[in-house]
Write a structure and sequence with these properties.
Blueprint (H helix, E strand, L loop, with lengths): L1 E7 L2 E7 L3 H6 L1 H8 L22 H18 L3 E8 L2 E9 L15 E2 L4 H14 L9 H4 L8 H6 L17 H4 L7 H8 L16 H15 L5 H14 L11 H6 L6 E3 L5 E3 L3 H4 L11 E2 L1 H4 L2
Antiparallel strand pairs: 1-2, 3-4, 5-8, 6-7
Helix pairs in contact: 4-9, 4-10, 8-9, 9-10
């Protein structure tokens, strides 16, 4: 059960979702499409077709900073760091607010944030590098690269090609609670074994269904191709360092939580019972370490701009 409230002018729109968890997960993309069409009266989508981007001069950058600061205030976000690129050049890279409410220290372009699911794009880049090196293709069956790869359905297992690991289109459900509730007991290899307990909830290619476990399998498949004798997590870390971070000179980006937390980093915050920002428990972030190809990277604006 969930409730959403939208407000515009004098009008309120209340949406109540009464769905079983399994149905909600399966139909999340379709529900999002419906809710995305609940727009204010008179709304028309702006088109940028044929328009030339304005030059990001100091006046426009200052206006954007003011906009983000106003958004921070409304949404009660403690700290933000962001960068702007125009014509291949960095025209702004800095932070606003605070890294941690207790200290009041401002983040900047070098402050590490946990970049969460942006890690999936980096993992996909690793796959692409291996495709470029002809170590595999996007059409290669995953089972020929990672023999231990198994889903709860044999036909689906056979059908999964490399490109399907990161397309969210295999019919496999999200089922994050399986690995979250195994917090502290799960390792990269055992995280992959969870896939073998899950069966598809839709036909192959029928629906978009987000899957952290499949994205993790993408990273560990690439790691196995490169370093089959290593532990999957260590192999993935080494692969990302060699094939993504080092070539791009992303010198601060890391999967090492201890390293990130011992240096210049932004602390996790979440709303308290009254809706005000408060320092958050980090367990939900720590829980992704065994599945880090899906969301375990720490990075800075300076590195992400690269």
């Amino acid at each position: 059960m969930a409730a959403r409230v939208n407000y515009s002018g004098a009008n309120w729109t209340v949406i109540i979702e009464d769905l079983a968890d399994a149905v909600a997960e399966k139909r999340r993309a379709q529900v999002a499409l419906v809710l995305g069409r609940l727009l204010p009266k008179g709304y028309s989508r702006e088109s940028f077709a044929g328009k030339k981007a304005n030059t990001l001069d100091q006046a426009r950058i200052a206006e954007l900073v003011r906009f983000i600061e106003a958004g921070q205030k409304v949404l009660k976000v403690p700290g933000v760091a962001f960068g702007l690129v125009q014509d291949g050049k960095i025209v702004f890279a800095d932070g606003l607010g605070t890294k941690e409410l207790r200290t009041g220290d401002r983040p900047d372009a070098g402050t590490l944030f946990m970049v969460a699911s942006n890690t999936k794009a980096m993992t996909t880049l690793l796959l692409a590098r291996l495709v470029d090196e002809h170590r595999m293709t996007w059409q290669t069956p995953v089972t020929t690269l990672l023999p231990s790869f198994r889903l709860g359905d044999a036909e689906t297992t056979r059908s999964v090609l490399v490109k399907h690991l990161i397309c969210a289109c295999t019919g496999m459900p999200r089922q994050d609670l399986e690995w979250i509730f195994e917090y502290g007991n799960i390792m990269p290899a055992s995280s992959l074994s969870l896939l073998g307990t899950m069966r598809p909830t839709s036909k192959f290619g029928e629906l978009f269904q987000y899957s952290n476990l499949m994205a993790a399998a993408a990273g560990y498949t690439a790691a196995y191709v490169l370093y089959p004798q290593m532990e999957p997590g260590a192999a993935y870390d080494r692969a990302m360092q060699s094939y993504v971070f080092d070539p791009l000179q992303m010198n601060a980006t890391t999967f090492d939580f201890k390293r990130a937390l011992s240096g210049d980093h932004a602390t996790a915050h979440s709303p308290d019972v009254d809706g005000n920002p408060a320092k958050a428990l980090t367990a939900i972030n720590d829980a992704v370490i065994p599945l880090r190809p899906a969301g375990g990277a720490w990075s800075s604006v300076r590195d992400m701009l690269k």
